[in-house]
């Protein structure tokens, strides 16, 4: 069955969960009689999130100042486990959606809907459907892309590439959008749109990666909006995605006791630090290790035991409901491993060639005033966010571990740092953590509670939430990936305008 639809006979094998509206296989014997898990997250205990919100009055102030919804929604509650990052996140998001900028307010929310739809994130879709209507959006547009102006439809191609394979973006994609004509985009408008797309692709990863629950709605009889769904429901909890049903013993997953797991990780960090001081790898060896890690990432997730069924079967089960598919084209287009099997001499984006600091910042800030400063603050915050703790251990330098996380994410998008030894990735990131990171980064809609529970089992939930912010750092490379071609095109556009 393809991902965009099904034949009548095949459709008979599926049903919709009456609670979350997700498409399910009948032969999975789904049980949906229980209420949804309580709290803002299906993964994180409610008491831990509530405690963070209670003791930090700063969160309530931030919601009053910068929340576009005007309330403490589930995303904000979970993100408040890191109040510093939350402030930076809310300020930048508020600026994109509400402050002066190239795009009309309704267009901003519709672009957010289009971005969230690429990852089937109904939670974000429904949030921005409400905001779209509140800001004067035309209700007919919510019937699907065929009802929106052509210039918005023209964002489909760059939307799907940014979401799944950003390395494929070329100057032709940009040129097609800004060419002269009634449906063209100005460069400031395009930068605003691209920032929104990248922001909501990353936010979808946070929603799925932290198990954000549907919002409670007092106007609905059962307390929830049936259409406000994400990937988590009792239909997941009833089918082996819960900690109670998922055996996490070493015999099943090859994972050692959580205490010795933590001690082993700290010992590896100490050993790697000592090896760095004793001998530095050559540039040739660093390149070899990057290529090895890039190819090894092929074997993470595919056919992995953390899935409840083989990867090939999983592809067939990816059915997109009409509530989501109406906002996208080419629903079968998704992430494809950057280092595909059987291919040699694959192109790699050297991060030092076009950096955020030297190129991306100036580009976005010139075309979309002040957004560069807000994004820069957000990038620096997430990259440096640490409390120098690892579970029960204090005064720990976590720089090495954090850099391994960020660079592993970038590696899957073909981005390489010349000064980083990628051999450290395999030393510091266990397989279960790699499975989780790759899933959240590349196809977040597949994330399960079992994946979340399988790694860093002795760590605090707040530390695991910090791990999930890694993909948002990839946003810093969006403008650098297209920067070279956009700069050339900008010059051409200015020349044409003068003539």
UniProtKB/TrEMBL annotation:
GO MF, any single term: oxidoreductase activity, acting on peroxide as acceptor
Pfam families xrefs: PA26
Keywords: Coiled coil, Cytoplasm, Oxidoreductase
Coiled-coil zones: 255-289
GO cellular component: cytoplasm; GATOR2 complex; nucleus; TORC2 complex
Any single biological process term in GO: cellular response to L-leucine
InterPro entries hit by this protein: AhpD-like, Sestrin
Lineage top rank: taxon: Eukaryota
Compartment(s) of residence: Cytoplasm
SUPFAM superfamilies assigned: AhpD-like
Primary localization: cytoplasm
The keyword Metal-binding is annotated on this UniProt entry: no
Catalytic reaction equation(s): a hydroperoxide + L-cysteinyl-[protein] = S-hydroxy-L-cysteinyl-[protein] + an alcohol
UniProt record similarity statement: Belongs to the sestrin family.
Protein name: Sestrin 3
